[in-house]
Write the structure tokens for this entry.
Amino acid sequence: MAPHDGHDHDHAHGHGEQHGQPHPHRPIQEDLSYRTESAVRARALKELLIEKGIITADEVRRQIEIVDARGPHMGARVVARAWCDPEYKKRLLTTPNAACAELGIDLGETHLFVVENTATVHNMIVCTLCSCYPKTLLGIPPDWYKSFAYRSRAVREPRTVLAEFGTSLPDDVEVRVHDSTADLRYLVLPRRPEGTEGWSEERLAAIISRDSMIGATLVRPDA
Amino acid sequence: MTRGHHDLGGRPAGSVPREEHVLSPWEKEVDAIRNLLGDKKRRLMTSDELRLGIESLSEAEYNTLAYYDRWIESILTTMERKGVLTRDEFARKVAAVQTRPEHLKEGA
């Protein structure tokens, strides 16, 4: 799992209670999520589809395992390889699905397009209409990506939004915002930070954050 | 052409919320169910149909339902249209789950 930028330490891929030990000073609490109306409706939907013979409980469990196994660590491997191997980078930019398959990453029916950050261009991804995202490469999108505020503002005032993520760019860097669709999803190829010359792919992958591959942040060598 | 209420690009909005949450078991299940309904074995629901169902919600529903609640609504609409289930059957199942004492104890 790649560590993320330094602005938010408590998020989906971090140290949630589902992954860590219960807090020593708090009594262990039951998971209350199934007491909500939403959870009851989800349970009813699942049971009804099982009764109808459309899906099975085992298929649902297996599908959750597949989704849980995906995450930003996959995108980070792709980016690290592209930083280290110029020929691979060319293939990633021209035939991204095949380039990901080279690393054993199956994008399924996702049509991926890779946009490269340079000294003069910074790319940023949004889905103004819904929440399209390269899930087969980066996992489930973060809450902020799905938020009404990000979807509304990223295309109108990207530099202000970037500033909220602690990302400031020189005025002469062009910011390009890409609006995803269900049929075309983007990955930002972030810039390799200075001071990482000679690093192994593995070491590089560890500093490549999820948010840098959406273009909300930059990769920092001290991440 | 009237602009849909889901079409948010460029509208004024407040700061981007940075709080994130780990998906609850029910959210993962809804996500998994949609994936299964769209897979090669079933082909009962494409991502375009998911979006159509979400974008067909009323503005009030769209703005107040949680993310995966919008998915549940879209799945129900699509499955009813395809004759897989009815809203009445679903309502009866919801009532059955609600009155089941053990649902309060289930974690996943």
User: Anything to note?
Assistant: DSSP finds five helices and no strands in chain B.
